[in-house]
Amino acid sequence: DIEGKVGHRWYWWVFQSPSVIHYVLDPTRSADVPIAELAEAQGGIVSCDRYSAYKKFVRLHTTFVLAFCWAHQRRDFLELANSYPDLSPWAMTWVDAIADLYHQNGLRLQADPDSVEYAAHHARLQQAVHDLATRRDEALADPRLAFPAAQVLHSMQNHWSGLTVFVEHPWVPMDNNVAERSVRISVVGRKNFYGSGSAWSGQLAATLYSLLMTVKLWGINPRMWLTAYLQACAENGNQPPVDLRPYLP
């Protein structure tokens, strides 16, 4: 039992960069988790969904910027289409518009950043984003707009600055799907071995997932890497090797 904690549910967080995947098991979903994990970072861009803890984090740490996920925004329109069949044609036009943003951004990323082609794709992407914002505001100004549709557009409007971070920062992905896929491995594990039955085993799982998924991110076979490392430990009297450089990227 953990003092102050009610129930047995814990939360699985993932922090992922181009070179590291770091998992955190914590009793809460509060902003205290990103605050603690990013305490030594000076600032940057955080690709995430619209969860309130991230918003609180950037209010307290103004050198960070949130880049909100277009996949979640797209999902809002798909859910609207499924829940309100009469609004489905309208909602799907927005899904198509978001698909076009992905397409335009993909063309930009394929081009050489110093090329004329890149500049042209960048300009087209900027125009597509501008047109989408104009279309959104015009729709919201229409008194005939159905309330469920207005809710989705208001959410888009409220999160617009975060949704458009990728435009002027091309290295920022349009969604956080990569991190969400990294979370799924723990879901598969929970189905296979029913998760962790104690806090210490959960923390051990988080450490091992972080280690092995990072190794996999480097393009190294985790089984081969772990075998080589444990063999080195055995040859060093069951102690970690003095020189860890061969096991680092």
UniProtKB/TrEMBL annotation:
Instruction: Please report the stretch or stretches of sequence annotated as the Transposase IS66 central domain.
Output: 6-203
Return the InterPro entries for the record: Transposase-related, Transposase_IS66_central
Q: What is this protein called?
A: Transposase IS66
Organism, by scientific name, is mine drainage metagenome
What's the source species' lineage? Answer: unclassified sequences, metagenomes, ecological metagenomes
